[in-house]
Design brief:
The chain is mainly α and 103 residues long. The protein has seven helices and no strands. Helix 1 runs parallel beside helix 6 and helix 2 packs across helix 4. It is globular.
Length: 103
């Protein structure tokens, strides 16, 4: 029961971190969005880690500790859920913003 509570808490923390990502990092993640989603779907944890780490390091931003938790072996079963919870607020963010000046 405590494992489920831990994963639930981590999902919410990752979603919050997704909302707080620096705009430059969010743009980098959006640029490789389809590739990233496909790697998550396939369960390629190493590739997903590399792609995300590259986005953060290219913009000289700190890789979130909560995101590191998603890649730990004990969270293997929940990997896709955890990563998707982080990516959901980021991917497609630019398109969902209302355009200025239109009524």
């Amino acid at each position: 029961m405590s494992e489920k509570k831990y994963v639930d808490t981590l999902v919410w923390k990752l979603k919050e971190k997704g909302h707080q990502v620096h705009p430059d990092v969010a743009k980098s993640i959006n640029d490789i969005g389809y590739k990233l989603l496909e790697q998550v779907r396939l369960g390629n944890r190493d590739n997903v880690f590399y792609l995300l780490l590259r986005c953060f390091k290219a913009k000289e931003k700190k890789f979130p500790n909560e995101l590191v938790e998603a890649f730990k072996p004990e969270n293997r079963e929940y990997f896709k859920t955890l990563i998707f919870s982080f990516l959901a607020p980021i991917l497609g963010e630019e398109k969902s913003k209302p355009e200025g000046g239109e009524s």
